[in-house]
Each structure stands twice: as C-alpha cells, then as structure tokens.
C-alpha cells in the first residue's frame, strides 16, 4: 500500500482536506506537524508525528527531528505540503544531506530519497523569479519584473519605478507576502509594510518586484508525475477570503489553449505532485499573463473533484501505477460554481453564494469539520465582543 506523509506547521485548510481524499483511494496516510495545528486533527491517519517545540520559536533542528522520526517509523513513499516555510526547511535539509562528507545512515538515505521524489530537483526553482522565467520559456507571457535580495536593493529599485507595482516575497503563501506599492508611496512606508508582513528579504527569501497586470485574475491548478502533465483546472474567484488571499467561491472555466505551455512547463520542472499558476486574462481565447508559479498544491486542488476533474485521483494513479496513466491531459468543460468550506463562511456568512451554490465540504471527515466549526464559532464570538465594546 502506498504511504503519503502530510506535513504542515500552520493552518492550511486545503492540505488538511487531502488526507481523507487519498485515504478513500486506498492510500495509507500519516500526519506531521505541531499538535495544535489543523493537519494533526485529521482522523484519517495511520499515524501522527509531532514537530517538537513551538511554532513561535521555530528552529531548523525542530523540522529535522520531526521529519527524521516520521520517516524512520512510517517510511512514506511521498511527502505533501503546501507550507512554504516548511518547504524552505526541507530544501535546506536535502542540501545538507547532499553535501555532507559523512556516511549516510539508512534513515538519512530514506529522507534524501523521499525529498528527491517529493521536491523539484533544483532548489532555485522555488524562487519566484526563476519559476516565472520557466513559464516564459514555456510560452506564457509574464509581466516586467525586478529582483531584490536586500532592503537596500529593494529601495534602489523602488526609487526608479513608475506606476503601481507589487512585491512578492519568496516562500510566502496565501497572499501574506504580497505587498502593493502605489506609485506615490514613500520609501519609509514601503519598509514598514514589509516589516508588518512578517517577512524579511535575503538571498534565499528574495523579493520579486512586479508591474501590475491587467485583466481578470484566475487560478490554474495541475497534477503531474515525473514531468508529465496529468490534468489541470482553471477557476475564476467569485469571492475571496481577504484581499490578495485565497478564493472562497470559485467557478470552473474551460481553457484548452493552456495545455501546450503547461506541458512544457511541467516537463522543464520534471515535477511530481501538484502545482499552480496565478494568471491574468484579457482574452478568453489567448494565453494569459502568468504572475506566479507555485510548485505545490494550490488552495483549490481538493475542490477539483467537485469541479469534475479530480487532480488528487490523477496524481494517485501516477504514484501507484504510472503505466496506466492516460495519454491525454484531463481538462473538463463545464461552468460549475462552488462555495469552499470553511472559507466562504468565514468570508461572508450571509452571502447569497452560500444560499445558492453547493458547499464543497466532506461531511464524512468529521474530525476536521468539528475543529473548523469551533474555530469559526470563536471568530464570531470575538467579532461580536468587539462590536459590543465599540457600542458601549
């Protein structure tokens, strides 16, 4: 039986929904994270492994200890995460193993093999500007952009910009590392906004400064195995959880013209797993402008089954028996719209979307749902208390 280790140090809802879907397909699933995190609340696991310590004082050694114990005990065939901070740690762990002069123990060799299967071969591909250049080579248009590896370099570049731009910090996800630069923004305000985001700029965690794109924002999600594109979805966000954040209500779109450049992009990455693109479209028949390439599962991958193009199942087929993979790339034509749980409720519990659209929720995954409903209740209580205090 195939075994997958799901790892997360934060509260990524979309990843926490995937163990149940894989278990339904016959996969033996395991969890790795801090004990109070959403990924560890799932009851679909054959085993759970804690990352020691606290996320408030995160150290590289905590990641190493957690991964080492999990691999030692469950010996997974693949590791899935959408946690950008964890991905950065896993890349560092793999590089340390690759460059050591010491003989490798059996477990260290297992860790290296797991990371080689689960991550893209070249770590620089996880830098936003590098993956964006690959999208361009595959045939996608991309916006004008610059790269900064320090605050000083960023300020120098920002001083010469005209018009609106966006800063996107590598290894930041969910819109948290996206900072708008209005044309007239003072430099000291720019640095204050970066500090407020909780990220910093280095050679590894550099910043992509990108011109504002025109058109309609869409999201592409895809599944791949050993550089072969298996299938993809394109969705329009009808509602978002917060500005620059993940979608809470989506509509499926049919864009067959994206297949050829996606095939080239996935092949150049030799990707196994999931990935996605953030795009801006001005012509439904043409190629959109790609503003970001994600080498991990996107927020909408667990929803692909309800959209009619099950990316989770496609990846499972590659992982278990690649000989049976179809020759054609799966991309389904329909205009299905769905509300995502819990995002649609958290975004606007009175929304008409919740009254008229199907809710994408796995009712059978009771442990995850109980945890999420408790979190929603706490949020609503806090909001009510703030309103009460303001009135008084």
Q: Which keywords apply here?
A:
alpha/beta, Rossmann fold, Dna Ligase, domain 1, 14 helices, 38% helix
The gist of it:
The protein has 392 residues and is of the alpha/beta class.
* Overall 3D form: globular
CATH class of the largest domain: Alpha Beta
CATH topology heading of the largest domain: D-amino Acid Aminotransferase, Chain A, domain 1
- When the domains are counted, the total is 3
Distance from first to last alpha carbon: 60 Å
The helix content is 25-40%
- Can you count the beta strands? 15
As residue ranges, the low-confidence spans are: none
Estimate what percentage of residues fall within beta strands: 15-25%
Total helical elements: 14
Tell me which CATH architecture of the largest domain applies here.
Answer: 2-Layer Sandwich
Protein structure class: alpha/beta
Biggest beta-sheet profile: 7 strands, mixed
Strand order of the largest sheet: 13-12-9-10-11-14-15
Mean pLDDT: 89
Radius of gyration: 21 Å
Describe the SSE topology.
Layout: E1 3-7, H1 13-16, H2 18-25, E2 28-33, E3 45-50, H3 60-74, E4 78-80, H4 84-99, H5 106-118, H6 128-138, E5 145-148, H7 151-159, E6 165-169, E7 178-181, H8 187-197, E8 207-211, E9 216-225, E10 228-240, E11 247-253, H9 259-269, E12 273-281, E13 289-294, H10 304-307, H11 311-320, E14 337-340, H12 343-347, H13 352-356, E15 359-360, H14 366-391
Parallel strand pairs: 1-2, 1-4, 2-3, 14-15
Antiparallel strand pairs: 5-8, 6-7, 6-8, 9-10, 9-12, 10-11, 11-14, 12-13
Architecture overview:
- By secondary structure, the chain is of the alpha/beta class.
- It has three domains: 117 residues, Rossmann fold; 68 residues, ATP-grasp fold, A domain (Dna Ligase, domain 1); 146 residues, ATP-grasp fold, B domain (D-amino Acid Aminotransferase, Chain A, domain 1, 2-Layer Sandwich), CATH 3.30.470.
- Helices cover 38% and strands 23% of the residues.
- The protein has 14 helices and 15 strands.
- It has a seven-stranded mixed β-sheet. A four-stranded parallel β-sheet has the order 3-2-1-4, sandwiched between helices.
- α3 packs across α5 and α4 crosses α5.
- The longest helix has 26 residues.
- It is globular and about 55 Å long.
- The mean pLDDT is 89.
């Amino acid at each position: 039986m195939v075994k997958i280790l799901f790892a997360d140090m934060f509260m990524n809802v979309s990843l926490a929904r995937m163990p149940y879907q894989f278990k339904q397909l016959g996969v033996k699933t395991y969890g790795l994270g801090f004990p109070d995190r959403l990924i560890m609340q799932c009851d679909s696991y054959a085993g759970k492994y804690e990352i020691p310590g606290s996320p408030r004082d995160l150290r590289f050694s905590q990641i190493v200890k957690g991964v080492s114990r999990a691999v030692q005990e469950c010996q997974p065939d693949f590791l899935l995460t959408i946690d950008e901070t964890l991905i950065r740690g896993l890349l560092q762990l793999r590089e340390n193993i690759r460059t050591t002069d010491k003989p490798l123990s059996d477990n260290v060799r297992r860790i290296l093999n797991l990371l080689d299967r689960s991550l893209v071969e070249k770590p620089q591909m996880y830098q936003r500007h590098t993956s964006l250049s690959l999208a361009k080579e595959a045939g996608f248009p991309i916006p004008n952009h610059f790269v900064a590896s320090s605050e000083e370099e960023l300020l120098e570049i920002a001083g010469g910009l005209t018009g609106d731009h966006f800063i996107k910090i590598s290894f930041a996800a969910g819109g948290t590392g996206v900072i708008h630069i209005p044309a007239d923004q003072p430099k000291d305000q720019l640095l204050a906004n970066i500090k407020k985001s909780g990220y910093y700029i280095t050679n590894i965690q550099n910043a992509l400064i990108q011109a504002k794109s025109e058109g309609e924002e869409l999201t592409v999600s895809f599944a791949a195995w050993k550089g072969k594109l298996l299938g993809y979805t394109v969705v329009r966000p009808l509602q978002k959880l917060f500005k620059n954040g993940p979608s809470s209500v989506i509509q499926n779109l049919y864009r067959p013209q994206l297949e050829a450049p996606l095939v080239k992009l996935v092949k150049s990455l030799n990707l196994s797993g999931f990935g996605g693109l953030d795009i801006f479209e001005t012509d439904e028949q043409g190629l959109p402008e790609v503003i970001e390439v994600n080498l991990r599962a996107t927020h909408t991958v667990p929803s692909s089954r309800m959209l009619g193009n099950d990316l989770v199942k496609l990846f499972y087929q590659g992982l278990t028996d690649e000989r049976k993979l179809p020759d054609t790339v799966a991309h389904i034509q329909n205009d299905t719209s769905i509300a995502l749980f819990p995002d649609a409720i958290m975004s606007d519990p009175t929304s008409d979307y919740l009254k008229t659209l199907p809710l994408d929720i796995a009712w059978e995954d009771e442990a995850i749902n109980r945890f999420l409903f408790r979190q929603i209740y706490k949020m609503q209580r806090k909001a009510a208390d703030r309103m009460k205090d303001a009135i008084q």
